[in-house]
Amino acid sequence: MRLILLGPPGAGKGTQAQRLVEKYGIPQLSTGDMLRAAVQAGTEVGKRAKAVMDAGELVSDAIVNAIVAERIDQADCAWGFILDGYPRTLVQADAVESMLSARRLTLDAVIELVVDDKALVGRIGKRAEEAKAAGLPVRKDDNPAVFEERLKEYYKKTSPLIGYYYAKGKLRGVDGMADIDAVTRQIEAVLTAATPVAAQGSAYGK
Q: Is the peptide bond prior to 196 cis by the omega test (within 30 degrees of 0)?
């Protein structure tokens, strides 16, 4: 089972990805984790990434794509994986298509967590107020102004992927504003329709 989770920051992708990891035994792949692992392992592409980061520069799409390609060849991805936070751009989406095609693999589904942006901003503001009231530090990501900037960045660079995957017949939307368990059930329904046998867990020894 090979999946991509789409949605703006705060949509709950990380929570749902972790539930999928626990249920199906496939890894959740995030670019940050993959970059750190490649650098620590000292792979060829990891060395290239380290040199760029040490110079204080942003890691290029070419390096990120190479790290993803290297990661999905590892044994724990044999039954599939969940891409969370990648691809972020149309260029990266094309790279995913190429790397999967080269391995004779395909995506089973691209699941978009559809959310109400204003409600998300309100939720973040409420969380920040509750933290302050409890005498706790407010996380940077819980600052409404910072969050709104992240939303703008998402809609500028990543939201075009919605049309990209819709045109390929891979996009499936779920109500990301529902409670966590309800979102999980919606995702399960999508996966059952996309990969009936795999979604029952039999392919993973569950």
A: no
